[in-house]
Amino acid sequence: MSSQLAHAYAVCRGIARRSAKNFYYGFLVLPSEKRDAFCAVYAFMRHADDLSDDPGSDPRQKRQKLSDWLESAQAVFSGKPTDDPVLMALADTQSRFKIPADLFEQLVYGTSLDLDIPPPSDVPAVVCQTFEDLKHYCYYVASVVGLVCIRIWGYTDPKAEMLAEDCGLAFQLTNIIRDVKEDAGLGRLYFPVEDLKKFGVSPEQFAVANLNGGPQSQAIQPVLEFEAERARRYYESARWLMELIEEDSRPALWVLVEIYSRLLKRIAERNYDVFTERIQLSVWEKLKILSRGFVMRVM
């Protein structure tokens, strides 16, 4: 590896270390080559997310910047030289692990989906009418990440692809449940209309003023519980996926699943009160999970 490429990967590791939060713990138990690859992919995704969230740009400008970022990556994949450390490391990762280039196009598309949501108002905009709509949304914002991950983890059985999609869906459903109040503040409601109707709940009940832990919040907790049960079923796919990826990658998947499934368990233990405070695992809890991941790696 050239010194320039080594520096590019070092830049990506720094970005992942500062920003990746839960995912970074999974990176740490991988062999160095796979860990660097994950950091490169994460750094590419992080920049796309930053472009999508840029408060100084309107939706049209954001889409153009995302398109430019993707075109730059595609050009480097095709052999065009670059001085951008993230794109340099990403191109090496894409080539080394034979990651289909169209997956990166789908990743960037996923970061643009929220740009279609109307500006925030008192009542959050409903993003999905049905669970199939939600699965479609989650595919681009989470399941595609799983499809990239398994290319780096290594697999031969095609069933791993479907299981990786399910795993990404489980993670994203957990995030949606945890972040319902934050998303409502941004004018977004991801729970499908068909699920709200099942429990006699309306989008108006997700107005931020109602999400304070009082009676209005308690009235929507059955919806959260219903979505949590869905997430648990998709976490089962992660258990099967563990058997289909290369052995040196299994501790990484185990760490990620353990962190996210424990987060979902914590939410359930608090009776789905995600309104009065942000529910998360402490750094100490994550480090304990990470230590078990390292033990798995050396066994």
Structure, described:
The protein has 299 residues and is mainly alpha-helical. The chain has two domains: 1-116, Orthogonal Bundle (Farnesyl Diphosphate Synthase), CATH 1.10.600.10; 117-299, Orthogonal Bundle (Farnesyl Diphosphate Synthase), CATH 1.10.600.10. It is built from 13 helices and two strands. It has a two-stranded parallel sheet. Helix 1 crosses helix 3 (32-53), helix 3 (32-53) runs parallel beside helix 6 (101-112) and helix 11 runs antiparallel to helix 12 (250-269). The longest helix is centred in the last third of the chain and has 28 residues, at 215-242. The radius of gyration is 20 Å and the shape is globular. The chain starts with a helix and ends with a helix.
Query: What is the averaged pLDDT score?
Result: 92
Spans where pLDDT lies below 50 across 5 or more residues: none
Order of helices and strands: HHHHHHEHHHEHHHH
Binned, the helix content reads: 55-70%
Q: CATH architecture of the largest domain, please?
A: Orthogonal Bundle
Mind summarizing the main beta sheet? 2 strands, parallel
CA-based gyration radius: 20 Å
What is the CATH C-level name of the largest domain?
Mainly Alpha
Structural class: mainly alpha
Number of domains: 2
CATH H-level name of the largest domain... which superfamily?
A: Farnesyl Diphosphate Synthase
CA distance, first residue to last residue: 29 Å
The gross shape turns out to be: globular
Hey, roughly how much beta strand do the residues contain?
under 5%
Write down the CATH topology of the largest domain: Farnesyl Diphosphate Synthase
Number of helices: 13
The total count of strands amounts to 2
